[in-house]
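FAQ: What does a multi-protein file look like?

Like this. Sequence, then tokens, then the next protein.
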Amino acid sequence: MSRDAARLRRRVEAVTNLLDPGNSIEHERARGLLTDLFERHDHPSTFHALRSAATAGLDVQTLEAMIELKELWAMRSEWWYRRSRDQVVEMERGPNALSWKLARRVCLARWQYPPESMIDDEWFEEWLGLPPRAPGHHDFVAFVREKIEGRASHDLCAGLRFLDNAPEPVPDPDRCPLHPLQRDVAMDALAGVRAVLVD
């Protein structure tokens, strides 16, 4: 086995072994996802970021969504913008502006959406209309972070916790899922919101 192949295998196993417990089929799927990813992106920073994400808490489904979301971001050049004085200009490192850490947070917060809908297309227009000094004003990726972690997200999460009588989440968002609710409870809450909006 070559040195590169051995390094690839070590990286894949290091991350796979940290994933939340799952069955053997899921872990084999994770190995396939990680092997493909590390072959295409062999920079150590990718490995370190995913190892950190797995240490913080990560299952195979979220890993797969993160990879898809990062790849989608890298194709959506219309999102790679920031403000410079009175202009909106393209970021120098736009394809990589969405970090693995933020991708994980987006996937945890928006798990009920497919990766292609986790970042709403309307958010960019909303960002363009932000007044100066508003949270997330500087660049679009900061606005995505604000949508996920900011006040509006906090209020929604607090409302869902109230409906479920759930305790306050652990304050460190990298040590546990952002929304510690059972999936069926969250879906019931969302159905109720939709019913109110329709009426």
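And here is the next protein:
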Amino acid sequence: MRHIPLLLKKQFYEDRKGLIIYAAVILCVMIIPNLIAGFIGQLGLNSFSEDYRSLFGNFLYIGGFIMVSMAFSEGMYSKVKQHAWLMTPAHAHEKLIAKELSYAAIYPLALMLFMFISSTIVAGLDRLFFGVTHEIFNLADPAVWKMVLYYLVGQSIFILGATYFKKAHFIKTVLAILLFLVVFGLLAMLFARIIYAPYAKVMFHGNINLSFNETTLMLSDRLQNLFNFLEVTGKVFFWALLAPFCLIVSYFRIREVEAKDAV
């Protein structure tokens, strides 16, 4: 575990130019449209709290997931840098934990702080040039922290994709998620078709003499309990089991690559 701070320092040193450009893009996206709105007299019509929340979500999810999906592309599967990555004096779990700390903890917190500072700058410019005072990015907004919680779970899926796919990590991970959702949706439709088989059979045969009322599609107590159980199980799996599962599989994938490619 003593190598983790050194790995974080090494990663920051290697990514510093890209991070500076990324921060500049965020600042420009926040300042330029705001100045344009001020010059055309539309500044007072904006809802800054919602705009900042939406902008934060876009950078958190899109930017964060893209960066997470490329976490191991420069070392683990790079023909040029793989040897240096394999020879790095750190264990597999240290390499994984360093990446997790970077993208699951440091990135969302740094993004929140940077947007707070940027929104303060924007508010100062608006007050100086247009005489308009508006709110800044709210670090204590519950909706913002809820986004972060969903991001913490989602990024574990993309870091799993980063360890398994050798190229086009982000696109392949998204396609894998979509494929899973399609299969899950088909199974859910099949499950619903079995439960409502009598009603579906009548509807598909075009029997217009059947009348529906509020009790027609009511579930029995047993089925209702089943649905409640599935709902609770799904929440437990998503919030408590999905991220650890993805990280454990990612760890063994890193060990596998180290064992095969180091020989």
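Q: Is there any per-entry metadata?
A: Some entries carry free-text notes. For the entry above: The chain has a mean pLDDT of 84.
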